[in-house]
Structures are given as structure tokens and as C-alpha cells.
Specification:
Strand content: under 5%
Order of helices and strands: HHHHHHHHHHHHHHHH
Helix content: 55-70%
Structural class: mainly alpha
Number of helices: 16
Length: 331
């Protein structure tokens, strides 16, 4: 099931009825086609108005979620987008809205429906809840991250873990440090058999930054899956942990054959390759800034290779900047 293929309609509740064209060709050209254009333009205008009204009034999303119809996933999807917008930052602290969504997800988890639309709804509710900075979302996200053994629930578990990672990166530590169930859920995900779950858990552990989380990240540096190692290394580097150096050197290899080999399209392979290199360079720079005593000599040669003429200009520029910082340390 691919959620990227979900319909892009603004309001699932207001779909246009199918138009049956007359058989006469000239009537179709003269009347039906212009009428369709008018209807489409009207629908677009109404859709824009609908979006503006909803964004200024988030309770409209809650009302849409209360309706028992197949279009509720769209309201959850759109609300998650609204919460991500910087101009709606205040909504992230709205406890009443957070509780409404948490109750909705809790109800959906209890119902346990396995059809595509029900799964989509739970996924997008997790995405929305992760954007909040209030502790009211934790109970249901922890529950969703461990929801069921059914294979179809895995995408919900994964979305809940992503939501916890986002939450931990922004919420006040005081809101969750006395919640052992939060860290135990993330730690359990870091040992999951699915590499994608472990990789996401590494982000959550880095966001948490507790001694227990950092110790687990150090163990994940030897994970068999490249993305897990890389996420563990970049998060440790940002904390000034010199143990990340070896994996950072691996990440700085120009070809990245092991990490990009699973991508089927060349464009995806190139994008992932550049993303790994950029993240490695940033992590090396942050490690240098965080730990003045760290021995980063092993990173100099790999970074120098990234300044070659055949590398992308953006990579070369960043590599040059990091080299300057590393050489300052050696002088």
C-alpha cells in the first residue's frame, strides 16, 4: 500500500458528480466543455477558500474527523501539514486540540480496522500528533508504536515512532523525562527486526539525548544496516562523541555503494548519495565544534576526496569549509 498514491482532493466530502457528455460532438464542444471549465474553476476557488478557513480554524479539522466517512484521512493529513507550518507554531501548544486528536487515534486503535482508509487515518493522526509540544500526545503515540502484531499495522507503528522522534526534538524535556514508557518504547524500536524502524529510532534517541539513549546509539554504530549506523553516527557527532568518527569516515566515501544500492532509480540513488555526504560533512563540522579534543584526523583524507572536480559543486563547497575547520585544529 502506498500513501503517496492517496488522492490530492482538498475535500473528500465534496467530490463532483460524473458528467455524461451528449452524443453530439458539437454540443459537447459548445456546451459541456465550457461548463466543465466553469465547474472546475469554481471548485478550485471553493477549495482555496476551504483551506484558508480551515487553517484559521483548526476545530474544523476536528469536526471533519468526527464524521464517520471515508474522507477523514484527508482532514488528518491536512492538519498535519498545517501544524508543520511555521506560521501556525502556536497550535503546537494547543492542549485541547492535541487531546481531541489523541482521543480520535485512541478510538481508531481500539477499533483495529485493517482496511486501507483506516490505516491511512491512523498514519496521518500519528503525523499530526508528533507536531505538538504538549505531553497529552504521549500515551497514544506510545500505544500506537507498539500496536498489534499484524503486518498491516507496521506502517502505523513506524509513523508513531517518527512522531515520537519529532516530539522529542521539540517538546520540553520535563514533559517526558519522568515517563519511562517513552524511552522503553524507543529503545525497543531500536532493536526491531525492521531496519527502517531502527533507523527512525536512532533519530528519536538522538533527540532524547539522555545517557541511556546515547549509550544505545553507540551500540548502533555497528548495526548491519548502513542507514542505522549513519543515523546513530550523526546524532552522536552532534553531541560531541568521538566514537562517531569511524562511521562518519564511511559516510564520506563518494560512491556510497552499500547505502544507495537498494534504490532502484538512478535519480533516487544520486539524491541519497548526496544527502549522506551532506549529512556527514555537517556532522563532522558539528563534532569539531562540540569536542575540541576529539581526534578527527581520520576524516581529513575522505573529506579531501570530496573536493575533486567531479563532485557536485555544493558538496565541494561544504567539503572545503569543513577542511578549513579541521586544519585549524591541527595548526
Amino acid at each position: 500500500m502506498s500513501y503517496a498514491d492517496a488522492p490530492d482532493s482538498v475535500s473528500p466530502n465534496d467530490q463532483l458528480p460524473p458528467v455524461e457528455p451528449p452524443s453530439a460532438g458539437f454540443i459537447v464542444r459548445l456546451f459541456v466543455i465550457p461548463a466543465l471549465i466553469v465547474i472546475i474553476m469554481f471548485a478550485l476557488g471553493a477549495g482555496i477558500k476551504w483551506l484558508v478557513e480551515r487553517e484559521s480554524n483548526p476545530t474544523a479539522y476536528v469536526e471533519a474527523l468526527r464524521r464517520n466517512n471515508d474522507g477523514r484521512w484527508q482532514a488528518a493529513h491536512d492538519l498535519a501539514d498545517v501544524l508543520r507550518s511555521p506560521r501556525n507554531d502556536r497550535l503546537k501548544d494547543d492542549r485541547e486540540l492535541a487531546r481531541e486528536l489523541a482521543d480520535t487515534l485512541s478510538t481508531e486503535l481500539a477499533a483495529g480496522a485493517k482496511d486501507d482508509l483506516a490505516i491511512q487515518l491512523r498514519v496521518y493522526l500519528c503525523n499530526a500528533l508528533g507536531e505538538f509540544r504538549v505531553p497529552d500526545v504521549l500515551d497514544v503515540l506510545v500505544k500506537a508504536a507498539a500496536s498489534g502484531d499484524d503486518e498491516r499495522e507496521r506502517v502505523v507503528q513506524f509513523s508513531a515512532m517518527k512522531a515520537l522522534a519529532v516530539y522529542l526534538s521539540a517538546a520540553p524535556k520535563a514533559d517526558w523525562t519522568d515517563r519511562p514508557d517513552v524511552m522503553s518504547t524507543v529503545l525497543a524500536a531500536s532493536r526491531d527486526g525492521e531496519p527502517l524502524m531502527r533507523s527512525t529510532a536512532a533519530f528519536a534517541l538522538g533527540a532524547a539525548g539522555t545517557p541511556e539513549a546515547l549509550k544505545r546509539l553507540e551500540a548502533m554504530l555497528v548495526d548491519s544496516y548502513p542507514d542505522v549506523r549513519y543515523n546513530a553516527a550523526t546524532n552522536l557527532a552532534r553531541r560531541g562523541d568521538e566514537q562517531a568518527t569511524g562511521v562518519l569516515a564511511e559516510m564520506l566515501e563518494p560512491e556510497q555503494a552499500a547505502a544507495v544500492g537498494m534504490e532502484q532509480q538512478e535519480q533516487s540513488r544520486e539524491y541519497k548519495r548526496d544527502l549522506i555526504l551532506v549529512n556527514a560533512l555537517r556532522a563532522a563540522k558539528e563534532l569539531a565544534a562540540q569536542s575540541a579534543q576529539a581526534d578527527l584526523a581520520a576524516l581529513v583524507e575522505p573529506i579531501e576526496r570530496l573536493t575533486a572536480d567531479d563532485m557536485a559543486p555544493g558538496i565541494r563547497v561544504q567539503a572545503d569549509e569543513v577542511l578549513i575547520e579541521l586544519k585549524k585544529r591541527r595548526s
